[in-house]
TrEMBL record:
Catalytic activity: ATP + protein L-histidine = ADP + protein N-phospho-L-histidine
Modified residues (4-aspartylphosphate): 155
Start and end residues of each Response regulatory domain: 104-220
Species assigned in the record: Ohtaekwangia koreensis
Start and end residues of each Histidine kinase domain: 252-466
Transmembrane segments: none
Single GO MF descriptor: phosphorelay sensor kinase activity
Enzyme Commission number(s) of this protein: 2.7.13.3
Name this protein carries in UniProt: histidine kinase
Superkingdom of origin: Bacteria
Amino acid sequence: MEVYNKAVQVGSLKLEIAISDRSNTILYQSPEEHEASLACPYFINLTARDENDKRIWQTPVMDDHGEIRYYSSVYEAIEDAKSKLGDAGDEIEYNLPGSSKELQILLIEDIVEDMELMCMTLRKAGMKFNIKQVDTREEFVQALSEYKADIILSDHAIPQFNSLEALSLARKVNAKVPFIIVSGGVSETMAVNCIQQGASDYVLKSDLYRLPLAIQKALHAADITSATREELLLKVEELSETNNQLEHMLYGVAHNLRSPLNSVLGLLNLARHEGESLSKNMSHYFQMMEDSIRKLDTSVNDLLKYAKNAKKEVSIEKIDFKKVIQEGLEQMRFMKGFDRIQPKVEINQSSLFYSDAYRVSSILHNLISNAIKYMDYSKADSFIKVAIEVTKQKVDIEFTDNGIGINKTYLSKVFTMFYRATSQNDGTGLGLYLVNDTVQKMGGTISIESQEGEGTSFHITLPNHYSTALS
């Protein structure tokens, strides 16, 4: 069974390194081979190929009598490779698991003789290592924080402590470090349980010849998983989130696009059947159709903003907050209720502010639009208040309105895609999602406070890229 395989390029040579476990092939071994497998229970195959992929050297080699010479350790094979390949042989040593440095082994063992036997076994296999031995739970916990172990070896049962408890403690501190149980007696059920709990392997003390191979297998697995586990988990998480958003978006898009269109079709059918009274009601119907089309346009526009925010790289430039807010108000002047809103803007700026102009505009414009959509028509003095405080490090934006407000029950959901916290059907459910998504993209923070019937306040903090822009 192959436990390690790697190919490396050294100059014009391609080196192939493979290690296989031959301790499991006892039925197919001669007495001489079985004796050799007890001394070195792994089969080492090193191959060197030239630029034409022609094999120029390979182990194992034949001795003077034409018999295959098995190496007693990985390091015996390395020395042979060095003598034949020079610098390329050094590269083989560097790329073998655990061979490029001294292993730092943390050992849980209360019998000194057993520890010495393990050390003898590892030295015989040519392994370089330092070992720290502990025999109590307290010592182990302390060693986990103070001793940087490459691998942990643990007896299964010592007084008032066992390997499963040690494994649990180790995983809380370092989930990646290999953990091998070395015990005088482990049942099959216990061995399976240990592996399920996260142990890399288990070795019986009566079969310590397996320990060097078990360590190499565990280190090799750790080399692979440490480089890929976090990346894979991150990719899975990102893909899952993307899929959830896409599924949600498909439903929301279908709903938001089809509803206005159905309204337009329905109004046209009404107009078609009005007959003689068509001219009297035409103006009203046209206004309703215009409102429905504007909703459709808003939905499409919000989707375009979402797509642009997701793909567009952050671009740093100087921001004029007064101009951004004025442009936002100008864009919203045709919205229903705009003429009833009194904007109040306060800007306290002790430094120039550098950030992504498109995204800053998107945040403020969405908040202005949201405040107008959900204004409280029962109030005579509807307002939008924007307070901005700029320093060299950041900008704090306090955006407040005295609109209809949001019920506290729904506050935790207002940044969710397509979520509406009110029965008013004026919005797409994308506005606040886009605001939050944009703030996160820029490395900022956002919080919301609201009281139904009183109004809503957003507090946004964004980093100032002043130093970066001027460097």
